[in-house]
Task: structure prediction
Amino acid sequence: MRRHSKLKDNPRALAVQILNRVDRERSFAEPLLDSVLSSGRPRAEADRGLLTFLVYGTLRMRGLLDFLIDRFHRGKPSALEPGVRNILRVALYQVRFAEKIPAYAAVDEAVDTAKRLTPGRDRLVNAILRNALRGLPGVVFPDPASDPAGHLSVAHSHPLWLVDRWIADLGLEETRALCRADNEIPPLALRVNTLRATRDGILARLARAGLEAKAARWSPDGIVLAEATSSLREVPEIAEGLLFIQDEASQLVSRLLAPQSGERALDLCAGTGGKTTHLAALMENRGEIVAADIRRAKLTALESAARLRGIATVRTVLVDATDPDGTARLGTFDRVLVDAPCSGLGTLRRNPEIRWHLTESKLAEMPALQGRILHNAAGCVKPGGTLLYSTCSVMPEENDGVVAAFLDRHPGFCPVRPPGGFPSGVLDDRGFFRTFPHRHGTDGFFAALLARRR
Result:
């Protein structure tokens, strides 16, 4: 195994530093990892792949890793500083899940990282990991028969409160399948910019470049790259604006709204514009789209994304969607999309840190926020227009519950079924759009299409 003389080029040390920031700043790993990789660290391609593997793998399996650490640390769990715990997590993740990395190498690198990042704690790290190497075969997990929730929580690395909720909502076997799916590496799904390319044309171009890709299962605009494609630098079509990184379920949300050429559409919580730019393509770059968000940086990124993709119909507006006066000033629209802020519990494959940052109390706060935004959005819908409410959550209180409360308050709206040709396999018996990672191979999404009576 090659030794790294510099801390800044050591993938294990870099992984620990990223995980420390994820914990300290309560941030997502993806932008932190992208920042490190875009700076040229580590230099070797194999090390860059290892860094990504360690960051996401450690976050996914953090619950299991902490269970093991606490078995082999002879002191109180609270006595381990966060930085030391992350060193141990990264090391144990390699021991448990990286077959090509010798256990002794993972331990040696962890001790070396501890010397550099947490001086004076290297001997403790060494002792805990040596205990683990000896004791791992004899670790006893919660009994799946007498404590199924506890077993799933540890074995599949999800918070116990969340496992309990899912068992109540979905049943034990569905919960087991969902937890397993959350820990799988998701495919790289991309949306074709149909203003400038066709899916068949892009697939042929990727094939000529030696990249394995296939048509997406659910989205007619989507393609999925094979796992062997390790770097987005291999896909120049992204930088050229021909492809957009977007999960299949997210792509289907815009299709559910079904905007038509020449219409006026509002994306009320637009973010960086994944759905905004898709709406523009579906409208064939004709009409008007107002993209509103509370964060200026997001709108700036959206404007750049629109320019790159040759979109001329989008106007951005800085608006707080919870402010009724602000949304009222936007006017009225034929189509309104509310991709509401949510827990993100449908995206744990891609954002595993959410499961450790979210609490039951934070989840309980979401429906009120979502309901306020949806109420304000209703005033932006023309008579005869449509309103689409969507989340990337699988929790009923953020989805069905918010829609039911809205309909009670707004008798002028009613649910409508999706347009013809929309895939029936992602619709429930009420016509609501609902996906799960373990059922559909996509992120978990929900959407309800609501029409305003004339």
Q: What stands out?
A: The first helix runs from residue 11 to 25. The domain at 7-138 is CATH 1.10.940.10 (N-utilizing Substance Protein B Homolog; Chain A). The first strand starts at residue 188 and ends at 192. The chain has 20 helices and twelve strands.
